[in-house]
Design a protein that fits this description.
Helix content is 42%, strand content 26%. It is built from ten helices and ten strands. Strands 1, 2, 3, 4, 5, 6, 7, 8, 9 and 10 form a ten-stranded mixed sheet that branches. The radius of gyration is 20 Å and the shape is globular. Bound molecules: S-adenosylmethionine (SAM).
Length: 319
């Protein structure tokens, strides 16, 4: 569902602005936390342990947004010592990720110190040197050309935005020969919103929405069935997949008709993306589509709407 939120804000409910996108990334963090596949994460930690923990563990994350994955992996104690480089092509997101890191440290009583363009985060038996950078993925891979190698490469909610065939060699080129990858929340072609309104219209909307992911006009690539395509591409590459499993987004209301955290905002964002993507589509009746959107938004406001999106996590060893 995130394809058209590739750095672009949703259009309705709130003015289209980068602020919407930042708010969306914040709101989706609790949904992602729940969705990540525990088995795949467990196998990743086993894989890291089997190769002997590097000191520090050198981690690179592509398309990090506001740094949600970094926070999560700190909280999960992925490594006691790490050198974590995270980049995104959007400089505003990187700036905000830096601010969030300060708040993160403050909330947890951690020490945070500037250290030559990076920050050192320490406490709770962990010590990480964190570098946040504004970089474009392809340019970064070319410019690196094996100057630096990392032990672990991460791409979270990113690979369904790009051309896999072109992206995988770049990702692998960043890794040490025995390095691992952890690619998470790769969308895989199924969106469900319940309760149904008009089953035929529901199906048409999701089908056209998925189709739009496969026909993006910005040249970046991306696909609505990235999850399964990723598994095949990894196998073809000769990589040893250590684990793969689903990481579906599932959002539902509490008995009192509210959503946890900022998940109502998340749901509105999803509807806004569908609105933005399909507005004016020749195969959709404009009025029926607007009624559908209005009714779906009411369902969020009244705490009735249930949302699912099928996604895949995978971890493994560099080919
Ligand atoms: C769906 S968001 C996910 C952000 C973050 N991983 C998260 O889940 O919160 C995708 C991110 O990838 C970034 N991005 C997209 N294409 C990129 C590229 N070619 N190079 C670097 N970053 C890119 C976008 O700016 C955006 O922040």
């Amino acid at each position: 569902m995130r394809t058209n939120l590739n750095g672009r804000p949703p259009q309705t409910m709130a003015p289209a602005s980068p602020e919407n996108f930042r708010q969306y990334l914040k709101a989706k963090k609790s949904v992602d936390d729940r969705s990540l596949n525990h088995w795949v994460y467990h196998k990743l930690t086993e894989g890291l342990a089997a190769r002997g923990e590097s000191d520090p563990l050198r981690i690179i994350e592509i398309g990090c947004g506001l740094g949600g994955m970094l926070e999560r992996l700190w909280d999960r104690r992925l490594a006691s010592r790490a050198a974590y480089t995270a980049f995104d092509r959007d400089p505003d997101l990187i700036a905000e990720a830096g601010l969030r890191l300060q708040e993160f440290a403050q909330h947890r009583g951690l020490t945070i110190l500037e250290s030559g363009g990076a920050v050192r985060l320490a406490g709770d038996g962990q010590n990480w040197l964190i570098t946040l950078r504004t970089e474009e993925f392809s340019a970064f891979c070319q410019q690196q050309a094996r100057k630096t190698v990392w032990d672990l490469v991460l791409a979270h909610a990113f690979l369904d935005l790009v051309d896999l065939a072109a992206a995988l060699p770049g990702l692998f080129s960043l890794l040490a020969p025995d390095g691992l990858y952890y690619f998470t929340l790769n969308f895989d072609g199924l969106t469900i919103i319940d309760p149904p309104l008009d089953p035929h219209l529901d199906d048409t909307i999701f089908q056209l929405y998925h189709q739009s992911m496969d026909e993006r006009q910005d040249g970046a690539g991306g696909h609505s069935r990235t999850g399964r395509r990723l598994l095949s591409a990894l196998r073809r590459s000769g990589s040893h997949i250590l684990a793969a499993g689903s990481s579906d987004w599932v959002v539902w209301p509490t008995p009192s008709g509210t959503y946890p955290g900022e998940e109502a905002y998340f749901l509105h964002s999803v509807l806004n993306i569908i609105d933005q993507t399909l507005a004016g589509h020749p195969e959709l009746d404009h009025d029926r589509f607007q009624v559908w959107l209005a009714r779906r938004r009411e369902q969020v406001d009244s705490g009735e709407l249930i949302f699912l999106a099928h996604q895949v996590d995978v971890c493994g060893l560099r080919p």
